[in-house]
Structure prediction request, 638 residues.
Amino acid sequence: MPFELFVALRFLREGRTQTTLLLAGASVGVAVIVFLSALIDGLQVSLVARTLGSQPHIIVRAPDEAARTLTDSPESLVQVVRPAQRLRSVDQWQQVRGLLERTPGVEAVSPVVAGPGFASRGAASRAVAIRGVEPEPFSRVIDVPSRLVAGTWRLRGAEAVIGQELAKELGLELGDKLRLSAAEGRADTFLITGIFDLGNKDVNERWVLVPVRAAQTLLDLTGGVSSLELKITDLFGAQELAAELERRTGLVAESWMALNAQLLTALRSQSSSRYMIQFFVIVAVALGIASVLVVSVVQKSREIGILKAMGTPTSKVMRVFLIQGAVVGGVGSVAGSALGSGLALFFTGLMRNPDGSPLFPITLEPRLFLTAAGVAFVTGLVAAVVPARRASRLDPAVVIRNE
Amino acid sequence: MHVIEAQGLWKTYGKGETEVVALRDVSLRVSRGEVAALLGPSGSGKSSLLTTLGLLQFPDRGSVRIGELEAVIEGRLRVDAARVRRERIGFVFQKANLIPFLNALDNVLVAFEINNRGGREARQRAAALLDYLGLADRLAHMPDELSGGQQQRVAIARALAMEPPVILADEPTAALDGRRSRDVMQLFRRVAHERGTAVVIVTHDHRTLDAFDTVHEMEDGVLRTTPHPSAAPAH
Prediction:
């Protein structure tokens, strides 16, 4: 065992009370970081998952129709009349789909024909969003099959899958008939084959999923699709990927981040608060380690003086205290990770939703522990710099004379 | 050739009214195998001379040579003091100054470790040294389990570990009774004569003067050499 490590461990063993305090401080600090990170990461993942449970990560659609002037003459008096936006198909959508599917980072692409309409049953009628989808690709973008509360995920001919709120409002059950009318007056009747709950009341109230071909007929978009909806690998890289897709396709690509700016702001604020809290915890732990080690230098000045008088190099004396800081950080990170994980699991088990799922889902990933361990180790090391310098500057002649 | 030689040492502490001259043109030579005593009242400059010889502090003027190494020339340090201390000088301080949480063997091993020469061989040599000093059955004892005399023997073993040409001891018998003091001084004498080590010992203890080859007396920072121990004045 290297001499510095040997002496550092003996110093730590000798000052048991101080070592216990040091380890307790470091462990609590790491535990707070682990607990807080696990909780906030879990909450964010849960929040994003809930939000994106009924949303694609990126929507690619045709650009809005823009007003165009008919003359280039600067002297002309021009009145701009902004056109009303009508439902338009994505040009060459099959080719665009292929291009999107080949783009790295894109997991699934689903063509969608979406437009407004009315759903009615008997005298009851509701404004709805008609969404023509291909069941298999759409289920890879938005996992409807796992969220069916009744029926099956099947869309053939004149079949429809609706949300549970709409079913309740119109008194619909599986096997019932639903009449869908588009704004242009086209209408058709659909058989209810499934009822879903996507965790969003508005979506459950408004979405009516029908086969692509039926939606194309209803919305007068024969052969076309209004958008291509994507699922991607890196959720938080959606903005950059959308920009790249816009550049490559010339179409409009909107990421979930752009469509949920408020949620994103909230997540960022939450992350900022977490980093602030972690920063202050780290500072507090560092100050605690430094102050206890400084006291230790004073208490061990006799031993340090003897070692220096015997010719121990200054660098070795410094390393003795740096190692103490590193050992405290290292052991504190292991104990703190265990404590933080325990706390997080206890907290999760304590508060549950009525359906039994945790109210505060937590995420305990190896990355979190590695980060916490790294932070604790470096904090311990940095915190020990001042005590180490102080120890290295002790004058052995003075120490020995005062003994 | 002298193993340790100091020439024209001056050392002053403080300034103005608080100025104290600890060493006034002090010169000292100690040969191989010689045991030299530094006598003198408190504040006479004995410890200042010892720490200057041991490169724990440096003179304002004067030179110190250890073996063939010109360590201090005209008050300026010319060597890595820590390296010279760990390789060429063995220290024995007042009250033993052992590291309290290391046993006797580990206290001696420290001297090997700081020279990056730890390991099994060092352990065997440390044990052999303690055996040589009569502590073979005390290797695993902690300092507080040893008597004052035994603690000083461990300190001497530690000082001898790197086989230095010089041992400097600051009142090593201050905390010991008469018999143990004589034992320790005889031990220094034996080490010096058997190993050829030059030993300089600061002491107040006139009962042990017969153990020294030379006696130097200090007063107000001035060193006076008495050629024969038996002729040294009593205080």
Remarks:
- The interface with chain B takes residues 3, 6, 10, 13-14, 302-303, 306-314, 316, 395-397, 400-401, 403 of chain A (CB under 8 Å).
- The first strand of chain A starts at residue 58 and ends at 61.
